[in-house]
């Protein structure tokens, strides 16, 4: 028997979170204020991730995997300073980070996570 799939904040293209078999999969999140620098955008994105994890019944201490996309690798240090202060000590997830062409040039950071319930 298949376990149920729960989709949160869904539209025709995506769900902001999908919950299945004790795992929460978040869509990529970007900043609302895209005039901010990479550090400011990272703060906003991580706050949105905290909110979506809470809505899904979990939190950042249960992160399994984090994927980070940057518009420019020159923002790597600024993003990491914010990310490193956010991550729960001793609970670092698997992580990758790379530069990609994001949907809009003003998006400097996009982050997608997977967490356990």
UniProtKB/TrEMBL annotation:
<protein>
    <recommendedName>
        <fullName>RidA/YER057c/UK114 family protein</fullName>
    </recommendedName>
</protein>
<dbReference type="Pfam" id="PF01042">
    <property type="entry name" value="Ribonuc_L-PSP"/>
</dbReference>
<dbReference type="InterPro" id="IPR006175">
    <property type="entry name" value="YjgF/YER057c/UK114"/>
</dbReference>
<dbReference type="InterPro" id="IPR035959">
    <property type="entry name" value="RutC-like_sf"/>
</dbReference>
<dbReference type="InterPro" id="IPR035709">
    <property type="entry name" value="YoaB-like"/>
</dbReference>
